[in-house]
Amino acid sequence: MKIATTDISFKRIQQLALPAIVAGIAEPVLSITDSAIVGNVAQHATESLDAVGIVGTFLSALIWILGQSRSVISAIISQNLGAGKIEELKSFPAQAIYFNIILSIVVLVTTYFFVEEIFSLLNAEEMILEFSIDYYNIRVWGFPLSLFTFAVFGIFRGLQNTFWPMIIAGIGAGLNIGLDIIMVYGIEGYIPAMNIEGAAWASLISQMVMASIALFLLLKKTHFSLRLKFPLHPEIKRLVVMSLNLFVRAIALNTALILAVREASALGKEHLAAYVITSNIWLFTAFFLDGYGAAGNILGGRLLGAKDYRSLWTLTKRVNLYNLGVAVILVGIGFLFYEPLGALFSQELEVRELYNGIFFMVLICLPFNASAFTLDAIFKGLGEMRYLRNVLLGATFLAFIPVLYLTKYFGWGLIGIWLALIVWVVWRSLALIIKYRNKYLPLAK
Fold first, then answer.
1. How far is residue 343 CA from its own chain's centroid?
2. How many CB atoms lie within 10 A of CB 274?
3. Chain segment 162-191, per-residue pLDDT in tens
């Protein structure tokens, strides 16, 4: 079979990256919308914001840990596409999706009955703990739906298509914003104000709609089906091995994020609220920057399958440059509008003052995010899951944790937490640059 040449032109990269940006920000939009809406309720706004931040961090950890199979599915499909073997994969997507669903159900069952203990470990107490449990007990049922949707996104990405994930995510995000306003604040005479529980229901309904659309488009727009066939496809073994490596990687990643929330919570509810605001904005920009990383992931896997290393190097330079430009634009926007962004989440003066004092560190982090996240995505497309695992283990346990507790010892508060996060991202960026230059750059020459 003749293998088609992979297009890595500016136009093609934009065709993949721009829809991927929209699709990527859907998950943080769910948490950001919940935070912004409940942070402005009439009663217990700070406690509600803290609860959404704690639960959002925990659920994001679960989704990122198990949702890594999206990248594996994309890498396997794109590499087979590049090698001209896509027809041999017909039974693989269904098996991969069921793998995801089974994992999500196991994790859901094992965590559901211990949420009070989990949130207590994150320093949630009294009203914040009560609100966290109420919010989690509704939102958690969207967990398997999110992982199903992520798996479908991985299939579309592997087929070099980011358009349909964009449509799915765009509908879900828009629906969540509308439902949040209606269900949190209520409509007098028609719908009672449900406060934080309304935010959870809005997110759950949005996830149900996204999963339904994903299922419909998978069956209508691809030649794959959900009919489970045996024996297991040979690529399932590679899926499991790479997913396990990314599973460990994601645990290390979320160890850092959860410890950051825990230490912010220990400083007091106003400090936690300020941290929740900045981390939501940071996570939004991270997923925004992941769009060009997605283009590198998709095209990189195909180029590896075709053994076109020279084009792989060209692609890597281009997407890194484009993403650095995006990071600079985001820094400019943040510099100009950081005060209105803070007001969007909270009207409490102490929270706003704390937020203003640390937001500049989010801006410092963005260029390093651009490099780290772009190369991270490209390495996933290349199947370098073991190395990605080792990078995150080193970044978390040799960089983030020592800096976090050293700055805690000196009493640096939120500044120390954000300094630890910046060092964490810089470590990841440098480790990936060194690996790429040592392994893939020589192949291009």
1. 24
2. 30
3. 889 889 988 988 898 899 889 888 888 788
